[in-house]
Amino acid sequence: MGTDGWSGTGLLTFVGLGLWDERDITLRGLDAVRAADVVFIERYTSILAGTTVERLEESFGKQIVQLARSDVETETDRIIGRAREANVVLLAGGDPMVSTTHIDLRLRAAAAGVETRIVHGPSIATAVCGATGLQNYRFGKSCSVPYPAAGWFPTTPAETVAQNFDRGLHTLVYLDIREDRYMSIPEGIALLEEMAFRRSESPPSLYVGVARAGAPDQHVAAGSGDRLKQIDFGPPLHILCVPAPLHVMEREYLEQFGGL
């Protein structure tokens, strides 16, 4: 009987890789990878921008099979089918259960009688608090800003930001990740401003951008949209916070570490 109450012949373990490179995995996660019969990785909910799959394989001493988005979201038998009889690990950036995609996959595995376990990893959802000084308990609902497409320009993220602000809550804004493109902080701000304009609302007056959280060259900057759109934040990954009115300690922290 496993720790989650399941007793199948196989095992599916979700292992978080952390924030930046192959050294961010926990020791417990590394043990799980090295004990696995099959190791998968998905790289569309998040990536480790400071490493490659090849470097992960070299560091972990395991071959790693890269999954397509459909393998994780819809055609899940590639994972669950193997986990019925083998010890399978699914690697994901950050903490694996921050993604609803992985929650859904775990539910599917449980319905199929496959035992599942989780090895948590450092997540941007908590690391952003240390990077910015914005207090964890003051964050409201998060949102994602996607790249618009022809005939499609959603404004829901701006609505989420406005609702949180009205309640005195910060917003964590995830920026779109594509196979060949990673949204930057200036791009995200420009899109949020356009969304606010289309909703006949004023855009936020203060943003905090975090680039490459957990990396040696992590970059944090706070200020107006105009100021941050002029900053070169460098390579990905980028994430954005829209603060509510700041607590005195939050303001002091951003003045010291974010250039506010």
Explained architecture:
The protein has helices at 27-35, 53-60, 69-73, 77-83, 100-111, 124-132, 156-166, 185-198, 225-229, 248-257; strands at residues 11-16, 38-41, 65-66, 87-92, 115-119, 143-145, 171-175, 207-211, 219-223, 238-242. The strands form two sheets. Strands 3-2-4-1-5 form a five-stranded parallel β-sheet, sandwiched between helices. It starts with 10 loop residues before the first strand and ends with a helix. It is of the alpha/beta class and 260 residues long. Mean pLDDT is 93; it is low at 1-8.
Write a concise synopsis of the structure shown.
The chain is an alpha/beta fold and 260 residues long. Helices cover 35% and strands 18% of the residues.
Keywords:
260 residues; alpha/beta; Cobalt-precorrin-4 Transmethylase, domain 1; Methyltransferase, Cobalt-precorrin-4 Transmethylase, Domain 2; 2 domains; 5-stranded parallel β-sheet; 5-stranded mixed β-sheet; 10 helices; 10 strands; 35% helix; globular; disordered N terminus
End-to-end distance, in Å? Answer: 53 Å
What count of helical segments does DSSP give? 10
Number of separate structural domains: 2
Given as residue ranges, the uncertain stretches (5+ residues, pLDDT < 50) are 1-8
Q: What best-fitting shape do the alpha-carbon axes yield?
A: globular
CATH architecture of the largest domain: 2-Layer Sandwich
Largest sheet: 5 strands, parallel
CATH topology (fold) name of the largest domain: Methyltransferase, Cobalt-precorrin-4 Transmethylase, Domain 2
